[in-house]
Amino acid sequence: MTRILVVQHDPTCPPALFGGWLQEAGCHLEVRHAYRGEEQPSLRGYDGLLVLGGPMDADDDAGHPWLPRTRELVREAAECGVPTLGICLGHQLAALALGGAVGRSEHGPHVGVLPVGWGCEVLLDPLVDRIAGDGRAVQWNHDVVTALPPDGEVLAAGPEGDVQAARLASTVWGVQFHPEADESLVATWAAHDDGALRALGTTADDVVSQTRTAAAELADAWRPLATSFARMARGRAAANGTI
After folding, report:
1. Which residues, including other chains, have CB under 8 Å from residue 169's CB and lie 6 or more apart?
2. How far apart are CA 205 and CA 215, in angstroms?
3. In DSSP terms, which residues pair with 163 in a beta bridge?
4. Is 178 a catalytic residue?
5. What is the DSSP letter of 148?
6. How big is the CA angle at 12 (ends 72 and 134), to the nearest 5 degrees?
7. Alpha carbon 218 to its chain's center
């Protein structure tokens, strides 16, 4: 059994589509709802770590006291070689944990189905080399990674240069966008973040409709990311003799 530890930070940010794709690829997910006070255990016995998104700031430890433990888990994963993927907030937490920096995007919030600007570095990357293309992704963020960890490498960047995807350590990756999101998740986020929509001069209906129309395109683009991550976790499990 390939076991993936999943850290969920908010009820509005579940594994959703990405979790389903991992299960289809043969992974067993153990979701810890950190916002409920559920323990984030040691990675001993796990073959992968998935850190999900959330509306909080990545360094708001006072308001969300489980965040230091999440960052500690990322460091443990990097030290032990456990395949790790951070999504949005998870990407930011991983960057902070490994020596990077996070802050407000100078270009305002990124909301909607937007292009992903892959760089040539993906050709040598073991997680994304098979999936990079001209696809788009759901994005919903105010903050971005402003400085990578010392060993980090940008894999994708937006038109203004904001980091969209990065390899943060040898077995740790982060994506600023939301491969897990479908129209129901986007509708929930729109209901909780009207300020971002107003800032961009758009509406919840517009963003939800955009996501619905792009559903097949988004699944085709990001199911392979889950499959690739599952392949790496299975490799870890096989090396440890757990499958």
Report:
1. 78, 98, 149, 151, 152
2. 15
3. 157
4. yes
5. -
6. 85
7. 15
Q: Where are the alpha helices (DSSP H) in the chain?
A: 16-24, 67-80, 89-97, 183-192, 194-200, 204-213, 215-240
Is residue 192 part of the annotated active site? The answer reads no
136 conformational bin, left if phi > 0, alpha if psi -120 to 50, beta if neither = beta
The predicted structure's pLDDT at residue 35: 97
Q: Which residue of the set 9, 64, 91, 178 is catalytic? A: 178
Residue for token digits 């930011």?
A: 92
Closest CA to 179 of 169, 193, 165: 165
User: 202: domain CATH number?
Assistant: 3.40.50.880
The answer to whether the beta carbons of residues 22 and 230 sit under 8 Å apart is yes
Q: Of the candidates 50, 56, 65, 53, which has an alpha carbon nearest to the alpha carbon of residue 20?
A: 50
Q: Which of 179, 238, 185, 176 is nearest to 48 (CA)?
A: 238
pLDDT in tens, 166-188: 999 999 999 999 999 999 999 99
How many domains does one find in the chain? Answer: 1
Residue tagged active-site, from 13, 88, 91, 183: 88
Domain carrying residue 188: 2-240
Which pLDDT belongs to residue 199?
87
- Which stretches in the chain have pLDDT values below 70? 242-243
